[in-house]
Amino acid sequence: MRKKIHVGLWIILLFCAISFLFWQNELKYALPTPVPTNYHNVAMGSRIDLGKCWATHNKPVFIHFFNPDCPCSRFNIPHVSALIKKYGDKINFKIVVLNKHKDFTIAQIQKKFDTDIPVYFDDAMAKKCGVFSTPQAVLIDASQKLYYRENYNKTRYCTNADSNYAQMAIDSLLKQNQPPLFDALALRAYGCSLPKCTK
Q1: What's the pLDDT tens digit per position in 1-30?
Q2: Domain limits of the chain?
Q3: Which among 138, 131, 156, 159 is positioned nearest to 95, based on CA atoms?
Q4: Residue 158, SS3?
Q5: Which of 137, 134, 143 is nearest to 170 (CA)?
């Protein structure tokens, strides 16, 4: 009888450990990122002051908000790299690193994305664009108006071609169309919350 109790306890403990790991590594990142209490929404179509050091050359600007410690950001790297390679001649891509705990160099970030696009460590840009989680995509048109802000895809690994929201927004802007009407999954932030970039 005692042996059965021990086996039962071990099975329960194992199940709890597996459940905890699943929560830590998968499930919690599938839940929407809570909106901060002091969040100020920036409406689509708002003018975003990019400042003098963010030269646009009259091209649209795509800002990738990235945290190297955020699992969702790491899973997203191949997809963002593919967008940069595909649209880099038509759009100014920028990476904004948001991480309060570690120092990263520009070269380290560029190496992760296999690119030499500009990298910034500018928390203020997230606030200007209404971003409160990572990873997030922000697309600003040539007149510096917010065209799209939110998710890359409804799947964590950006593998669903039917929900490549950021790419759809880029294609729409380049065709000079109105921003696409996306479903709630595109417009609800997922990932690691700011300012500490934890879930």
Answers
A1: 677 776 677 777 766 666 555 545 555 555
A2: 1-30, 61-193
A3: 138
A4: coil
A5: 137
* Rg of the chain on CA atoms, in Å: 19
* Pairing status of strand 136-140 against strand 192-193: unpaired
3-class SS letters over 133-188: EECEEEEECCCCEEEEEECCCCCCCCCCHHHCHHHHHHHHHHCCCCCCCCCHHHHC
The topology under which CATH files domain 61-193 is Glutaredoxin (3.40.30)
Both tokens of residue 112? 């992760």
Does residue 119 contact residue 110 with C-beta atoms inside 8 Å? Answer: yes
* Amino acid (one-letter) located at 66: F
Q: How far apart are CA 117 and CA 55, in angstroms?
A: 12
Residue with token string 């932030």? 189
Q: How far apart are CA 116 and CA 30, in angstroms?
A: 31
The alpha carbon of 98 is separated from its chain's Cα centroid by a whole number of angstroms, namely: 11
Token duo for residue 140: 């600003």
Reduced to 3 states (helix: H, G, I; strand: E, B; else coil), residue 192 is strand
The string of pLDDT tens digits covering residues 81-135 is 999 999 999 999 999 999 877 788 999 999 999 999 999 998 899 999 999 888 9
* Ramachandran sector of residue 197 (left: φ over 0; alpha: ψ -120 to 50; beta: rest): left
Instruction: Using the CB atoms, write b or e for 143-169: b if 16+ within 10 Å.
Output: eeebbbbbbbbbbbebeeeebbbbbbb
